[in-house]
Amino acid sequence: MWSRRNETSLEDVGEVEEIPLLDKPFPPSSAKDSAARTSVEPVEEDGSLDEGDALYPTEGEKHGPHALRRVGGKISWPAYLIGFVELCERFSYNGTAAVFINFLQRPLPPGSVTGVNPNGTPGALGLGTNAATAITQFNTLWVYVIPLFGAYIADSRLGRFRTVCYSVGIAMAGHILMILCTFPSIITRPPLALTVFIGALLVMGLGTGGFKSNISPLVAEQQRGPARMTVVRDAQGERVILDPAITTARIYMYFYLMINIGAGLGQISMTVAEKYLGFWAAFTLPTILFCLCPFVLWYGHGIYTKSPPEGSVLPSFLRILHHTFSPLLTRSLRQAKAAWRNPQFWERAKPSMYAGHRPRWMAYDDAFVEEVRRGVLACAVFVFYPLYWISFNQMNNNMTSQAATMTTNGVPNDVINNTNPIALMVLIPVFDAYIYPALRRSGYNFTPLKRIFAGFMVVSSAMVWAGILQWYVYTTSPCGYGANDPACGPSPMSVWWQTGAYVLIAISEIFASITGLEYAFTKAPTSMKSVVMALFLSTSAFASVIGEVLNPLAGDPLLIWNYVVCATLSFVAGIIFWISFRKLDADEDQLNEIGHQGHNSEEVAEEEAEDSDV
After folding, report:
1. Residue-level pLDDT at 576
2. 443: alpha, beta or left, given left = phi > 0 and alpha = psi -120 to 50?
3. Nearest-angstrom CA–CA distance, 338 and 345
4. Calpha distance 243→57 (Å, rounded)
5. pLDDT by residue (tens digit) across 468-504?
6. Three-state SS letters, 9-53
7. Model confidence over 234-269: pLDDT tens digits?
8. pLDDT tops 80 at residue 312
9. Number of folded domains in the chain?
10. Is 51 a member of any domain?
11. Is residue 190 part of a domain?
12. DSSP letter string over 118-143?
């Protein structure tokens, strides 16, 4: 039996921070395994382990003065395949969306039926600024609402892999409809072209939404190796803890790298394609690359880890929430506060609390209550994210406008923000190979909550950088505080001074955005991973709504205040975030363990007895 107490030694271990894992996952944890592992010998005072010690680390090995160093495993080949699918999808979506404004806002250049305008700005439908902005904002809202529907379908009906496959097919149909908009017989008739374009947005958004909420948990499911922390030996013979949470973090770092490679290349190449080839090329070329997605999904079909749908857990989930939070629904603030601080707050929903008179509707076990608690905690963490995205979103609008008021030396102002994905391409491997391992070697546990807090602080500093830069633009511009006047010449300041803000935003993404994906996957209940991931993604939509409130500041002479407000909101949100959730930091390992242990004590005892007979 593989769960007998022993110490694992891996002969083929490579670098300590990249331990190669088994080709196949370890057998799933069962109640029997859990029982065997909880009966372990205590760690010696010097931190050493005898040959008969447990496969899983003790508390002394995980924490304390003799804690073993933690390492992550290598990323599996199936995870890279899923990452490549994401790269193609982001190239196709971002490359196409990058030209939406020009396609909608500006009319066809004289004599053109493709939108080509080498000496000016390309155009097609000529709807004007307001209509173009309204349609693109609707598209953003649409693609962040649909993930909730796609997540529910995956968790309850189809499973994540099948939902991703169907979503790719739906998005492909949307891409084809968008190409139809560029046919000369359609693009020269704006009402017809607009009808086809909006239909394409709806169909493509339906596929993109179903894809976004499921591809992120699907890539993390490709992790190979033990599902719980395990004691192994590295190449030098040192005992270390192989921590699956670190492996998951590494997977999401390189997954995010794929996102930025695809998005960056798509945006740069398609803005050039629309200008010199026409909108037919800007819509067709991303579709051709997107055609690789079905082939890669089919190629890895036999090696992907696919979680089957667990059925709808929504009724039980809602009953638990009602039963748990109902004591808070009182007019007495004192009683509500006492109920919230009651140590039995979640215990009251556990069936074990009703021995002998369990309500008929409690068709779940204690472990499911713990999973729901973990999911609620994860969603509570995400409440603060819109105030992070408010600062993050500045690089896609106000910072692009800021670049237009500076000296660019011929570089298009809407290309400068690609400094951000380029920085991520460099920084992600650096953080994975050097910075994070160095922190672990020093004994500092840079937990997800600490990383998220750091992300808020860094993005706030990026807004401070942008605000100071805006002050210098105003003081050096020929038009002073009217620097954005189209008739005004640029400030003599080089646009590359913006690089500092873009690099800081990239670092904040490594801390907050990537960790948010990791947190949504590791802390969500097994049966609700796609739903929790969709809720995390939907925080961007809330940020867009809040951003509309700040629009009055997005113009001269108030742009300095725009950056000051964004910096303040992100900074204060980060402080409140840490104050609210710092106590969870100590429970990080326990939260990650939920779902990997047995759920029924009677079953544990029965299987343990059977094991002893064998």
Report:
1. 96
2. left
3. 10
4. 10
5. 999 999 999 999 898 888 778 889 999 999 999 999 9
6. CCCCCCCCCCECCCCCCCCCCCHHHHHHHHCCCCCCCCCCCCCCC
7. 878 888 888 888 899 999 999 999 999 998 899 888
8. no
9. 1
10. no
11. no
12. TTS---BB---HHHHHHHHHHHHHHH
pLDDT in tens, 144-166: 888 888 888 888 888 899 999 99
For tokens 């695809």, what's the residue?
262
How far is 399 from 554, CA to CA, in rounded Å? Answer: 10
If we measure between CA atoms, which residue out of 460, 441, 473, 451 comes closest to residue 557? 473
Token pair belonging to 189: 């008739």
Residue type at position 104: L
Any domain includes 581: yes
To which H or E segment does residue 343 belong? none
Query: Can you say how many angstroms the Cα of residue 421 is from the centroid of all Cα atoms in its chain?
Result: 15
The answer to whether the Cα torsion of 530, 396, 272, 173 is positive or negative is positive
Instruction: Give the domain CATH number at 519.
Output: 1.20.1250.20
CB atoms within 10 A of CB 191: 8
| Residue from 539, 534, 543, 497 nearest 397 by CA | 543
452, 519 contact by CB (below 8 A): yes
What does the angle CA 502 – CA 507 – CA 513 come to, to the nearest 5 degrees? 105
**The pLDDT value given to residue 139:** 86
Q: What's the domain range around 566? A: 381-591
Rounded Cα distance between 207 and 204, Å, is 5
The answer to whether the beta carbons of residues 44 and 25 sit under 8 Å apart is no
Query: Band of the pLDDT at 358, cuts 50, 70, 90?
Result: confident
* Residue 240 φ/ψ, nearest 5 degrees: -135, 165
- Summary count for the chain: helices (H), strands (E): 25, 3
Integer Cα distance of 186 and 523 in angstroms? 49
Distance from C-alpha of 372 to C-alpha of 394, rounded to nearest angstrom? 35
On whether residue 360 sits in a domain, the answer given is no
Closest to 77 measured CA to CA, from 308, 245, 302: 302
